[in-house]
Amino acid sequence: MSVVVRGTRGWVLDAHALVDRGYSRCRRTGGDNRTSHWTGRFKKQCFQMLKAHHSARADVGEGNTGVLHETDKASKKRKRKHSELNQGEIDSRAFHEKIRSVVLEGTTSLVASARSLGHLTGAPDAAKEPLPSPQCGLAALCEMAKELPSADDDDDQRDESAQPLVAEGGRTSHLDLFSRVTENEAQWAAVVPLMGGEYVIPPHAAFLLSDFTRIRPLVRCGRRFDLIVMDPPWENKSVKRSRRYSSLPSSQLKRLPIPTLASPNCLVVTWVTNRPSHLRFVRDELYPHWGLEVVAQWFWVKVTASGEFVFPLDSDHKKPYEVLVLGRYRCAAGDAASSPGTPEVPVEDQRLIVSVPSALHSQKPCLSEVLKPHVGGGAECLELFARSLQPGWTSWGNEVLKFQHTSYFTLTPTDDGAEAPGAEAAAGPTAPPEDPLPAPGGPMAAKQLTRQ
To answer: Where are the stretches annotated Disordered (predicted)?
Structure first.
């Protein structure tokens, strides 16, 4: 069960179960064109956070406020005086105090409900294993692809349709991952060789592997989306120190063609860091620039397997929550490019999404289940700056296949292609009610880019 609790304050999610959807039936075609059948599971150890960071006790299920119980070493550190705080730190404290009770009271209630159902009890359910750590060179490949001829260079030869991931005979050769959208049209996941690696592509998933310089193929597909989720690579000191990925100046986000991609009443969801300047930029500058109206602000609360905040709630450094800003696209007057769009369903403000976070950097929980009531079934869904794929969704980014590498999955062969006992059904017409947002006929008319 991927949604453990639904309540007036929000949800408790089993993030691992959400990732696993769509992989109960996988097919791999070998060099001899023979097809083998597999069941895929995303590796459980990626979601095994048993203890809070810094040995901080922040158990929200026992009435604890989540304040750091400092160790002797931490207590000896010199604390800066309030007068030494810069304006950004002052703004961060003010924002935290404003939303603190919402996070604490809501998380306490949701965690208690989850525990009553046997979840967040702290019991490990998988053997401790090292995390997969494949080298991801997708961003570098995107840079190299800039030297290749672009589809925009020759309009007469431009193909705006999506290319199928698997051609006749089960082969994946001659795929252009960088300037055409690629789509897995099958109702099962495909295990395919791409760019010298092997990747698991969920059913009815489409993707484009590119950066801003080659986003036009996504636009030219002509599809308008009812839901757009984005997780921008915000600039901050931590990212610069870690060098995990390249960050993007906030002003560059305005280049995203949201008005061209969004259907009327499209719901746009943006993951925002806890830096107040980023939040102000999204609410006061970015969304108005795109013609979006802010309708809600939600919080993703990260807890351990026993229901503790992963960081102390009142820590001056890292907080156990992140912000999501939700907005609705309001078409400009005279915009006749789309139909009236999906009827708008009101979005409640100040809702919480509680889950055990992935140990993999920047892997956010899937939002399909919590957003489904606000966009309806059959919605066209798009993720920007994606690092993984979802069944029935279209995804774009320069590392869009990162967490689809087979090293993140446990693939178990099956005899005849039938689902393994207890496996969740794959996304598609026969999917259970909680499966990701369906996309009849494929995630979008766009095609995904893949390069052999």
So the answer is: 62-88, 412-452
CA 303-309-313 angle, 5° bins: 145
Q: Are 289 and 327 in contact (CB under 8 A)?
A: no
> Exposed, middle or buried, 170 (CB in 10 Å: 0-12/13-18/19+)?
middle
Decide if 79 contacts 126 (C-beta within 8 A). no
* Domain ranges (residues) in the chain: 3-67+88-414
Strand ranges for 30-109 from DSSP E: 35-42
Tell me whether residue 274 is exposed, middle or buried, using C-beta atoms within 10 angstroms of its C-beta: 0 to 12, 13 to 18, 19 or more: middle
pLDDT digits (tens, 9 = 90+) for 266-285: 999 999 998 899 999 999 99
Residue 313 pLDDT more than 50? yes
Beta strands in 280-389 (DSSP E): 292-302, 321-329, 352-355, 381-384
Unique residue bearing structure tokens 């935290």:
96
Name the token pair of 122.
Answer: 């702290």
SS3 382: strand
Indicate the residue type of 119: H
- Using the structure block, give the residue that is written with the tokens 């994606």: 386
CATH architecture of 3-67+88-414: 3-Layer(aba) Sandwich (3.40)
- Do the Cβ atoms of 225 and 61 come closer than 8 Å? no
- Count CA atoms closer than 13 A to 426's CA, side-chain side: 25
Tell me the pLDDT tens digit for each residue of 248-259: 888 889 999 999
* Residue 227: Cβ within 10 Å count: 25
Q: Count Cβ atoms below 10 Å from residue 97 Cβ, excluding itself.
A: 10
Please state, in angstroms and rounded to a whole number, the distance separating the CA atoms of residues 181 and 164: 9
262-272 and 321-329 strand pairing: antiparallel
